């Protein structure tokens, strides 16, 4: 059994989540329900739990500020939130889990299943990336957390050369000829990297613009990357790409 705490300032949302857990996720027992971040800090520090469902938008102190107030995060974490593009981007960037409200039963079961497989607190680097992404300009974040089949891998942004779609996974090519398979679709990886020098040049490829060494003309064309690999460019992306490359006089 997993002992859990629900943190949400809306009583109705707490009731809904508690009911969903009771009916559809019996392996989770709710030890406490908190309606404010301050109440949650007390509960988390007094109840040894393995999982916290944490609402992001709360008055006085939001979910992120709550995490900053804790002496440590010794539990698995699932954020619950209404759609907030900026917050969700930071959560995805740090490879932490989240559920969108209204919470879907199937998505809840999948999130808890992942927690059961992991049952570990977030790495300090994940929380550091999350808070850095929230509080500082995008260009100051220098690494990304990527979930792989073996676990979590922290990768410097400037080590990524290109990303290729592989069904529901993405194969990321790194410098030194290294490749890692990430448990995210290319679209999800694109959303995580769109604030940086990356561009989707084909439905199957995302590239680091700083790692392009040559553009070869053609219907769409091809890119030669810094590792010597060739990446196709779709016709629909050609003009946009050439505009981005123009200052470099390709």
Automatic annotation (TrEMBL):
<dbReference type="InterPro" id="IPR046947">
    <property type="entry name" value="LytR-like"/>
</dbReference>
<dbReference type="Pfam" id="PF00072">
    <property type="entry name" value="Response_reg"/>
</dbReference>
<dbReference type="InterPro" id="IPR001789">
    <property type="entry name" value="Sig_transdc_resp-reg_receiver"/>
</dbReference>
<dbReference type="Pfam" id="PF04397">
    <property type="entry name" value="LytTR"/>
</dbReference>
<dbReference type="GO" id="GO:0000156">
    <property type="term" value="F:phosphorelay response regulator activity"/>
</dbReference>
<protein>
    <submittedName>
        <fullName>DNA-binding response regulator</fullName>
    </submittedName>
</protein>
<dbReference type="InterPro" id="IPR007492">
    <property type="entry name" value="LytTR_DNA-bd_dom"/>
</dbReference>
<dbReference type="InterPro" id="IPR011006">
    <property type="entry name" value="CheY-like_superfamily"/>
</dbReference>
<dbReference type="GO" id="GO:0003677">
    <property type="term" value="F:DNA binding"/>
</dbReference>
<feature type="modified residue" description="4-aspartylphosphate">
    <location>
        <position position="55"/>
    </location>
</feature>
<keyword id="KW-0238">DNA-binding</keyword>
<feature type="domain" description="Response regulatory">
    <location>
        <begin position="3"/>
        <end position="116"/>
    </location>
</feature>
<feature type="domain" description="HTH LytTR-type">
    <location>
        <begin position="144"/>
        <end position="247"/>
    </location>
</feature>
<keyword id="KW-0597">Phosphoprotein</keyword>
């Amino acid at each position: 059994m997993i002992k859990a705490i629900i943190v949400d300032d809306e009583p109705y949302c707490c009731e809904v989540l508690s009911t969903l857990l009771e009916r559809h996720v019996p392996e989770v027992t709710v030890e406490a329900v908190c309606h404010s971040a301050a109440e949650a800090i007390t509960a988390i520090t007094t109840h040894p739990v393995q999982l916290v469902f944490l609402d992001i938008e709360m008055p006085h102190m939001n979910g992120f500020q709550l995490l900053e107030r804790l002496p440590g995060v010794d539990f698995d974490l699932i954020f619950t939130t209404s759609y907030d593009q900026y917050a969700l981007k930071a959560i995805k960037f740090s490879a932490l889990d989240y559920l969108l409200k209204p919470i879907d039963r199937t998505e809840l079961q999948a999130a808890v299943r992942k927690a059961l497989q992991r049952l570990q607190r977030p790495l300090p680097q994940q929380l550091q990336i999350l808070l850095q992404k929230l509080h500082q300009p995008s260009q100051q974040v220098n690494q990304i957390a990527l979930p792989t089949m073996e676990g979590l891998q922290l990768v410097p942004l400037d080590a990524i050369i290109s990303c290729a779609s592989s069904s529901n996974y993405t194969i990321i090519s790194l410098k030194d000829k290294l490749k890692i398979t990430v448990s995210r679709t290319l679209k999800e990886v694109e959303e995580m990297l769109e604030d940086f020098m990356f561009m989707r040049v084909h439905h199957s490829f995302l590239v680091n613009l700083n790692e392009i060494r040559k553009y070869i003309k053609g219907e769409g064309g091809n890119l030669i990357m810094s590792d010597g690999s060739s990446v196709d460019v779709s016709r629909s992306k050609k003009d946009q790409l050439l505009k981005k490359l123009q200052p470099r006089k390709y």
